[in-house]
Design goal:
Layout: E1 12-16, H1 21-32, E2 36-41, H2 44-56, E3 60-65, H3 71-85, E4 90-93, H4 109-137, E5 140-145, H5 158-178, E6 183-190, H6 196-206, H7 210-219, H8 229-240, E7 251-254
Parallel strand pairs: 1-2, 1-4, 2-3, 4-5, 5-6, 6-7
Length: about 270
């Protein structure tokens, strides 16, 4: 049996965290493959710019400004997508924050709760909203953005680390429940991808010398470079497409080989 063509033509896909970085790149790629995309993030003006880019390239997209770290807003984003485009075929739950950087004993309770709300609870709320419809129709794909921290323990970031481990657990639990209904749930694990979050870390590590910070991070990657949002977005689009029909419950790393190999640090 021939593999399905890699196309998303006509599918309705919601992308959260879509104003910058991975989410914005994914929205462009998905729309370029024929999907009708609802972009969700907090800043309406930047979302409007992203929608205009997609429209200029011949794609179909709309925007909904929401802080998905609150339940009502997370659910309202799905409602808005359905009202605009119809039933949801795919959800790329990409919104996330790094949170505070502090020793475990000094990590604030409010900081911990906030990171879990944005990184984990938003995924829970939105999956609860879209899964019944997908199960009823016998099709659908959900992709959540995890992290290298979904598989490894990182210091000074217990809130982020806990949330990203939990994202992977939530994905696998949902996949086990809905696989027989024809619905797929997967997790994508970005490595060192050039996003605003990563460049901020590069600044912090080097006291503002971004170029030196990015070069240092590149040396941590077996391929010897930091990845681009588009490289991650291409894999996300595949996992949301019917070409990935037999991929379910997986943690798919896009990391230049960090998790799967041992680098000598070049």
């Amino acid at each position: 049996m021939a593999a399905p063509a890699f196309t998303l033509n006509g599918k309705v896909i919601v992308v959260t965290g879509a104003s910058t970085g991975i989410g914005r790149a994914a929205a462009r790629v998905l729309a370029g493959q024929g999907a009708r995309v609802m972009l969700v993030a907090r800043r309406q003006a930047i979302l409007d710019e992203a929608v205009a880019e997609i429209a200029d390239a011949g794609g179909t997209a709309a925007a909904f400004a929401a802080d998905v770290g609150t339940r009502d807003a997370a659910v309202a984003a799905i409602d808005a997508a359905e009202a605009r485009f119809g039933a949801i075929d795919g959800l790329f739950a990409n919104a996330g924050i790094g949170g505070a950087a502090a020793p475990f004993a000094d990590y604030g309770d409010e900081d911990f709760d906030h990171v879990l709300a944005v990184n984990l609870k938003s995924l829970f709320w939105q999956m609860k909203r879209v899964l019944p419809g997908m199960v009823a129709r016998g099709s659908g794909a959900i992709l959540a953005t995890g992290s290298l921290a979904s598989e490894r323990g990182l210091p000074m970031t217990c809130g982020y680390n806990a949330s990203k481990h939990a994202v992977l657990g939530l994905v696998r639990s949902a996949a086990a429940e809905v696989a027989k209904a024809g619905v797929r749930v997967n997790c994508i694990l970005p490595g060192l991808i050039e996003t605003p979050m990563l460049t901020h870390l590069a600044d912090e590590f080097t006291g503002g010398d971004r170029a030196a910070g990015m070069a240092m991070m590149a040396r941590m990657v077996p391929q010897g470079r930091v990845g681009t949002p588009e490289e991650l977005a291409n894999v996300a689009a595949f996992l949301l497409s019917d070409a990935a029909a037999y991929v379910n419950g997986q943690a798919w790393a896009v990391d230049g080989g960090i998790l799967g190999t041992i680098s000598n640090g070049g």
